[in-house]
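Researcher: Here's the sequence for the chain we discussed earlier.
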Amino acid sequence: MMWSFGEYASMLLVAAALGMYHLVEGGCSGKCCQGTDLTCVTTDWRMDRVYGTCYCDEGCIRTKDCCFDYSTECPAQPCVVTEWSYWSGCSQPCQPSLRVRRRHILQESRNSGEPCSSVEEKAGCREYRDHQGTHCGVNIGPAFITSIKFGRGRPKHDVNGTSLDPGFCMKYKMESLTPHCTVENQPHTQWMQYLREGYTVCVACQPPAMQNHSSSCQGDGQESDSDALLQWQAVGNPRCRGTWKRVQRTQHCSCPQVHSFVFI
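Model: Thanks. This is the structure I predict for it:
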């Protein structure tokens, strides 16, 4: 049977239309699946330009057998979270303890988008008043320290608006520390990694940690001999502790930011 030019052209158009229809039907349109789902499958061109079985689940990104249109039909959606809440108060008054802040997930990640990171963070703290508002005083014991950043949030005025004593700075030579300090990698414990033997560190003594009547902080060693071995402990990880020797007292801290801390 002989076809006319018009009939032949019509057949080509039909074949092309069927091919386009095949591409639409065979791809990931309406087939985006979460996690690893072996039933989320069809037959079409894969991303690696091989024709055959291809998938439309999140696992196909890892196994590299996604259908050609996965990235457009199933676009990655990252996790969306709220802003951090304010820091809570210390979990226990009158002793080193922990404070916490949280955020909430608004949208889980989809299609291999950026996963949700931590929704809770903890950091060391210490309060000097009990739940009834009574001042606790300062106990005799090791120096409790934390990141210098903690001092930035401390009040600079009392309840009457009077400026508080800005305090002073103590310099120490680090003599020893436990290995637990260098393994901390959470956002609010990373400062412990900068505690190193042989380094000179600066520690600020500020209200309310500073005892106004004696102008000192717990464990600062001002009344000890310069060769005395003094003890310190990192707030937020009681296993991170060690010893240091007093070098001098100064009005301002002059150590690099990463080697500056604060009595708490």
